[in-house]
Design brief:
The complex is a heterodimer. By secondary structure, chain A is α+β, with helices and mostly antiparallel strands. Chain A is built from 5 helices and 8 strands, in the order H-H-E-E-E-E-E-E-E-E-H-H-H. In chain A, a hairpin with a 5-residue loop joins strand 4 (57-63) and strand 5 (69-76). In chain A, the strands form 2 sheets. In chain A, strands 1-8-3-6 form a 4-stranded antiparallel sheet. In chain A, 35% of the residues lie in helices and 28% in strands. The radius of gyration of chain A is 18 Å and the shape is globular. By secondary structure, chain B is α/β, with parallel strands linked by helices. Chain B has 2 domains: 2-101, Translation factors (Elongation Factor Tu (Ef-tu), domain 3); 107-274, 3-Layer(aba) Sandwich (Rossmann fold), CATH 3.40.50.80. Chain B has 7 helices and 16 strands. Classes of the chains: A alpha+beta, B alpha/beta. The interface between A and B is large, with 34 and 51 residues.
Chain lengths: 159, 279
Amino acid sequence: MQTLETILAQHPFFKGLDARYMSLITGCASNVRYKADEYFFHEGEAAERFYMLREGRVALETHGPQHREIVIETIEAGEALGWSWLFPPYRWHFSARALQDVRAIALDGVCLRTKGAQDHDLGYELAMRVARILMERLQSTRLQLLDLYEAEGRRVIYE
Amino acid sequence: MSETLGNPMLPALYRVLRVHREIPDTFTLELEPGDGAVIPSFSCGQFNMLYVYGVGEIPISISGNPAQPIPLVHTTRAVGVVSQAMRELKPGNVIGVRGPFGSSWPVELANGKDVVIVAGGIGLAPLRSVMYQIMAQRERYGRVALLYGTRTPSDILYRRELENWRSHFDLEVFVTVDRATGSWRGSVGVVTRLIPHAPFDPLNAIAFVCGPEIMMRFTAAELQKRGVAPERLYVSMERNMKCAVGLCGHCQFGPYFVCRDGPVFRYKDVQNWLLKGEM
């Protein structure tokens, strides 16, 4: 049976992280499961956890008029969910809902911040890995904003 | 096509068999040769010039099965005068066809390799022929992954075929949309987000990419980040193709004419031109 530390070390977010940091981080970790349609968190709530998805898909949502849910993007198995635990005011900007049954590892945000503050090398590693996700999601969002498929018909734009 | 082979500027007469609405602004046209015409053959990724008499002529990729050239199948969006007139055609109407023209997806180079097909929006149409060819000779290839991105769930092209392909145990099909409401249970995000999840060996994979040019650039970057060399990455370009035989110059793209040297290019050969905004 795999230990929590082994599972965490295999998650892409922690790929290549020094083993001594893995045991420190595992001290902040717990296994969690969510059923389809169950919410991880809601917009505006305190952001206390950082999730490493192992199985399933999660929708990041906001709501429009008349409570119509709009999916901003989905987070898939092997990806990390949520970064609001790292930055004040530590509140979620969006809601997160499981679209399927989800297995994940939850990391306590206060615990991670405390350990990062005590060991700046660990803090740097965590911040750089979160920054990489931020950069990738920002690039994706920019592409989404371009609305490429509406703006550009195939071939026939030259009619 | 006999007439076209003799004189590439002369359209052959084809009869409309069916006009099928795929999604709100996109339709598929099924054609058969007029009396006496030779059965056409084509390679995956090639295009024809379709001529609506009295209206105009446009280039459209062939999206049918190369092993079954009749009916001749094209899928396109009704966004201009010609394509809108084409959408209104009825079975039995006559249309002019020149072609097939251009380069093709080098499916033969994928023998023994993993195949990654990345399509955006109606860019799936020129790649459907590749899917037919691969599925007909599945044993020739390693892992096959089709990654498809489109605007919304209601813009998913060839939905039934995607569902059918997804049901195969030896094929991975990933679909994502740029925007969705709460009822959609699939992925939301740009198609490049799918690339890290697709199962393929980047050192032994060949990639075929078709979609809006910006999407192809970002897809190529993501595939290269995963380890796919630009020599094994192919894209399908589009420009203002008029004569289709490299004479008129309307579709010039750097040192190339897209109609004659493309539309399918090795990414390594065009990547520098793709990064120039004035092209």
